[in-house]
Amino acid sequence: MNFANPFLLLVIATIVATSLPAAKPKAESSSGLDRSAANEMAPQVKVTPLRGVPSLVIDRVLQSGMVRAGWNTADFPEFHKVGVRIFSPITTATAGFWESPVWVAPDTWDYGHVDEILKKIASGMPDAWILLRVELSAPAWWRERHASETVKLRDANGQILPLLLPHAYPGGHRTVPSWSSQLWRTDTAHALARLVRHIEASPYGHRVIGYQICSGESHEWFEWGNAVDWSDCNVQAFRQWLNTRYQSPEALHVAWNSPAITFTNALPPMEERVGKAQLGWLRDPQVEQQIVDYQEFVSARTGDAVDFLCRAVKNAASHPVMVGAFYGYLLCSDPRWGHQDLDQILDSPSVDFLASPGLYWEHRRLGVAAPGPMVPLSSLQLHGKYWLNETDLRTSITPATAGQTEAKVLSVEEDVIRQRRELAWILCSGVGQWWFDVCNIRYNTPPLMAEIGRLNRVAETAKNISRVPEDRAAAVVDPGSAYYLLPGTPLLNELRRLQVDLMIRSGMASGCYSSRDLPRLKDKRLILFCDAIAPSPTVRDAINTLKSEGRVLVFVWAAGAVSHGIFSAKSMENLTGIRIRALLEGATERVTINDCGGRAPQLKGLKYGSKRRTIPLFIPDDPAAEVWGTLDSGRPALVVKKHEDWTAVYSSSPRLPPEVLALLADHAGVHRYIPAGDALWASEGMLGITAFTAGIKRLCFDKPVRLYDLYEGRTMGTKSCFEIPFEPNETRLFSK
Fold it and tell me: Closest Cα to residue 632, out of 595, 588, 586?
């Protein structure tokens, strides 16, 4: 195949070097190379706006973002041979939950393993760059000496006990540090600074471009054990957070509906209360604000810990480095996990990039759902954050088994199909990826490595093509609304990631945003509010501002149900513009579509939603609204109401089908490239399609374009519409 670039590369603007901070003390090192000498060779690393999105630049060279990461550094040279130049090995600055300790005693540090990794990569591949993943828990001696700073549980009898997590290595169960511990944060920041200084003074420090700061059982900053932490440091931090939030005891009394509660006696909720909700799957803030507050605190505290430790690395480095973390899994994270405070991270100057594995579950299986990130990627890019996708697809030659959530394929041919599908959304979005080896994922078969080499060359060819977003449609997630959902309910996934997936399959370019960015979405014509259960007053005001200029605004399930700490159907009407009543006893949420007022007779009989009983369920009860779909009971469920200068749409059930979204896009004046059904990602310069079914697909633009097939390496001609044949599950990637 020919992967030559058919277009002139865009000229990269000159990157102005960031001023270096004051020199730091010389680090201890056996290398004999001091930091000032190492700094002269240090790479200049920046995440900076280029081609319309935040991009990674090293020594003024734009990077494609293709990375090999993992524990198994033995195959790094094989990836290097096929063109990969960035590698991400795993180590620690203290001790990890999985990684052996570097901080082996209070005054003893052993960087032998770190030095070995750096030497192996840099000496074997002198042009390789290293993005070091640093896993952080605490050494055993530290946890024993500071047992009060570790996570605690409270049993049914009120006894406070240490959280003991099972460990695969010798030692059985172990304790873990509380992220609320100021001592742990300070000691860990010191250890990170020491690691950075050691690396800068090593012979290989000039190959290190950055650090990924990790903690939690899977490196991903998930709350240890998904448990309520009753350690003294966490209880005190919760009380301080409440004080900052409510500021007066009277305000706390009202919120918690308890005149006895104070900032000095408030406690986290008991675990058994967290697992229940007053209104079925929805929390009543007048009864359960304690739980809502605690879960919001957990996210705020976790985000603050991420920011604090990233800042420690930035401050320790004597030259610009790239620093980031796993965080912000809004599309799929349980509210207990601590990932909802994405806004804090987006505002942080210390965090350059975020990462997550690509979506699991249906999204790994061919022909079921589209792949994608776990974050509202468009918001990250609005705020200048780079994204790295962890491509941990279980290959056909991986010896470990994989469940439905991971979806191991059966042949190298299917490996190629999935790798091309994954790269399409990654390149169209202008982000990076790393191939990972969790669960002993293997790539060492010639056909698969040859494909990875081809894909790497495609990424190099495409790296200068514009990725300026073209989305005129947006899916919006509201981070704080997750706190009002019962943990473990399927609704969070249905409202967020599965609804975003269906929007990707509606034939139009779309983006996914956090609700804090609503004031920046005035160019959008169709906005789907995935989960606006309890939007803040600021978010409500932003939504009201968007009720203008002929936009179509779509609301789902409990949209607007909580306002100023009160559950109310009236507040739903105020937000959605449609009168709605609550069925507190719930009902089956399956919806059957009619002909949509004669606009779409082909959709009559199409069903969506679940057959299960959803508690509570909400029924649009507005005589001025046109009914497009009904529940099995015959009650209205999908309605459209035309206001003077905007159109309101409400659905009792999540997962509006792509065909309905396509119809709404036409009403809103949003261009659709293909008919609904197949996955599409589009930016100013690139477009990718994954076909869920075989056949000729009609791809249309609003003006003639010169289309080039990047996977096939051939020009498709210049015109407005193209008839393109697809095999089932085939992905095509085009520049335009």
Answer: 588
Q: What are phi and psi of 669, to 5 degrees?
A: 80, 30
Distinct helix (H) and strand (E) counts, the chain: 18, 36
Q: Is the dihedral of CA 279, 285, 290, 296 positive or negative?
A: positive
Residue closest to 677 by CA, chosen among 726, 610, 627, 609: 726
Lowest mean pLDDT of 32-36, 283-287, 571-575, 670-674, name the range: 32-36
Contacts of 159 (CB under 8 A, 6+ apart): none
User: Nearest-5° angle of CA 235, CA 236, CA 238?
Assistant: 65
Phi and psi dihedrals of 583, rounded to 5?
-100, 90
What percentage of the chain reaches a pLDDT higher than 90? Answer: 91
Tokens of 653: 């059930």
* Residues forming a β-bridge with 176: none
Dihedral, 664, 666, 667, 668 alpha carbons, nearest 10: 90
pLDDT tens figures, 310-348: 999 999 999 999 999 999 999 998 999 999 999 999 999
Count CB neighbours of 52 within 10 A. Answer: 17
Other CB atoms within 10 Å distance of the CB of residue 337:
21
- Angle (CA) 358-360-362 rounded to 5° is 125
Query: Are 374 and 492 in contact, with CB atoms under 8 Å apart?
Result: no
| pLDDT on residue 23 | 29
User: What's the CATH code, domain 35-230+295-462?
Assistant: 3.20.20.80
Q: Do 93 and 191 touch, CB atoms closer than 8 A?
A: yes
The structure tokens 């699991």 sit at 360
Pull the structure tokens for residue 436. 């990972």
Amino acid found at 541: D
CA distances from 626 to 401, 464, 619, 658, 662 (A): 50, 47, 13, 20, 18
Nearest-angstrom CA–CA distance, 719 and 337: 49
Return the CATH class of domain 473-668: alpha beta
